[in-house]
TrEMBL record:
This is Uncharacterized protein. It comes from Parasphingorhabdus cellanae.
Length: 183
């Protein structure tokens, strides 16, 4: 690839920011919270819980996300069936939890989150884990239908995947009181 054809790092970050901005506010909130939990970036309970129910949910998510380290280690380096036995069931189980929370409503949002939680080596496995988790019976039939319809043919049948690390990791942003900021 010639130097003129190589993507500009800032342009890729901007593209990732635009993609994140296209998600609904509940999805954005869930992704930021999940990254705090999964990447151990901040006190997720202190930052994200608005009540006792949300606090309990974050604690469950924290317990489940402890599996991420083992899932990362198990990412297959090839497509041999025996290399997926430790990886796919654990990824599908964790994906089923996240989809069951009702805040990840499309494959693009799922891919955005899991690329950051697991890294670029997981990309080839994300369409399969998403489809498997999205078709499990714990989800309402309408939810299953919407999730499965959200994956494009191109994503489901991609001949290859980028190995580029994600560059934009959204975080909590404090609200600014515009009345006070104007003075």
């Amino acid at each position: 690839m010639t130097k003129a054809m190589q993507p500009v790092p800032g342009a890729m970050t901007l593209s990732e920011m635009k993609e994140f901005a296209s998600f609904g506010s509940a999805t954005q909130r869930y992704i930021r919270r999940s990254l705090d939990v999964g990447l151990d970036r901040a006190d997720a309970v202190g930052t994200w819980s608005r009540d006792a129910v949300e606090e309990a949910g974050i604690k469950v998510q924290t317990k489940l996300y402890k599996r991420l380290a083992d899932i990362r280690k198990a990412i297959p380096q090839d497509c041999a069936i025996d290399s997926i036995e430790k990886f796919m069931p654990a990824l599908i189980s964790l994906s089923a939890y996240d989809l069951g929370q009702g805040r990840i409503s499309s494959f693009p949002a799922y891919r955005f989150l899991y690329e950051r939680l697991l890294g670029p080596d997981a990309r080839p496995w994300l369409p399969g884990s998403f489809c498997a988790a999205a078709s499990l019976p714990h989800l309402h039939p309408k939810t299953r239908k919407g999730l499965l319809q959200s994956i494009s043919e191109a994503a489901a049948t991609a001949p290859g995947w980028s190995t580029r690390e994600p560059s934009f990791f959204p975080e909590w942003v404090e609200k600014v009181d515009m009345n006070k900021a104007a003075h």
